[in-house]
Amino acid sequence: MLGLRKGLAAGLCAIALVVTAPAAFAEVVLKAGHTQNAGEPMDVGLQIMNDVLQEATDGEYKIEVYPNMQLGGEMEMIKQVMTGTLDITSPSNGPLTNFVPELKIFDMPFLFRDEDHMIEVLRGPVLGKIADIVAARGIRLLGVYNVGVRNLMTKEPVETIDDLAGLKIRTMQSKYHVSAWNGFGANATPLNYAELYSSLQSGVVDGAEAANTNYVEKKFYEVAPYWAQLGWTILTAPIIMSEAKFQSLPENVQQALIEGGQKAAIYEQDLYAKVDNERLEDIRAAGVTITRLDPVPFREASQAIYDEFLTTPEELEILKMIQETK
């Protein structure tokens, strides 16, 4: 009888422990998609965001990163964020301006003096002001990636702005990029990036703008062996999520996403600049003819783009802030 009572008591204690033990949390997964390959700067940045989020929430929240267009192209992923089927993405700025036109300022030609200037702007008060404007469009801006200084590849040498007359130059599908290259005297030709190599090879286009990294990794030098350094723009890729989704999350998660986005952007900006600069040596090694175009006539032609697209007091104030950033 004594053994029975002892057994019963032990069983009751075990039940009590089960009842009073805290319930294990259900892990919350946020999905992030992007277009770069796994291990490239953009991908590593999102992994940094995940590390910050997991540490801040003791593992309750995490980010699963889907690289290399596993969840679709940039436009598809932007739409998924807007409709709530994807939590985070980092598209090029150009496609995003179709949904958030206020971001067009990042697509203005010669907006930044150089890469150092761009990095200072993206880490200063300008970004906070833009983030407030973007939030009204239903988008939470968590940071901005650097996607490289853009130059010019061509099938035949281009030595001055006058040599662009009549040349079909591939641009991104952005009206600001199209207007810029038309303003430079070229025949701007928006084209899907996946079609660029074959289009250069077949003569559909005579050239394209790109960063050192793109030029090397896609071996565009095989079909466009002239590389003119111009730096007509420095592409950006905002890290975004739906503002409604962001506001639905607990405050500590929101703060972790903000902190994680900032850390991811800082890391990626520096890493991409380093990698992209190193690619110039790879370009030389490939036997490419490298020249440097005089930017002055290009800058002068760019003024018409600013006059056309930046017209509101708010836009002009942001432009002034960018220009005055040291």
Task: State the gist of this model.
By secondary structure, the chain is α/β, with parallel strands linked by helices. The chain is built from 13 helices and nine strands.
Describe this structure in words.
The structure is a single chain. With 326 residues, the protein is of the alpha/beta class. It has a single domain (26-324), classed as D-Maltodextrin-Binding Protein, domain 2. The chain has helices at 2-20, 41-56, 74-83, 93-96, 115-122, 125-135, 175-183, 196-202, 212-217, 243-248, 251-285, 296-309, 313-324, and strands at residues 28-33, 61-66, 88-89, 139-154, 168-171, 187-190, 207-211, 226-242, 289-292. Strands 1, 2, 3, 4, 5, 6, 7, 8 and 9 form a 9-stranded mixed sheet that branches. α7 links the parallel β5 (168-171) and β6 (187-190). It starts with a helix and ends with a helix.
Please render the helix and strand layout as text:
Layout: H1 2-20, E1 28-33, H2 41-56, E2 61-66, H3 74-83, E3 88-89, H4 93-96, H5 115-122, H6 125-135, E4 139-154, E5 168-171, H7 175-183, E6 187-190, H8 196-202, E7 207-211, H9 212-217, E8 226-242, H10 243-248, H11 251-285, E9 289-292, H12 296-309, H13 313-324
Given the C-alpha coordinates, what overall shape results? globular
Rg:
25 Å
CATH topology: D-Maltodextrin-Binding Protein, domain 2
> Care to count the β-strands?
9
- Class from helix and strand fractions: alpha/beta
CATH architecture annotation: 3-Layer(aba) Sandwich
CATH homologous group name = Bacterial extracellular solute-binding protein, family 7
* SSE pattern, N- to C-terminal: HEHEHEHHHEEHEHEHEHHEHH
From the N-terminal CA to the C-terminal CA, the straight-line distance is 86 Å
User: What is the total number of structural domains?
Assistant: 1
Mean pLDDT: 90
Largest beta sheet, briefly? 9 strands, mixed
Q: Which CATH class is shown?
A: Alpha Beta
Q: List low-confidence stretches.
A: 1-23
* Oligomeric assembly: single chain
Helix content estimate? 40-55%
| Tally of individual helices | 13
Strand content: 15-25%
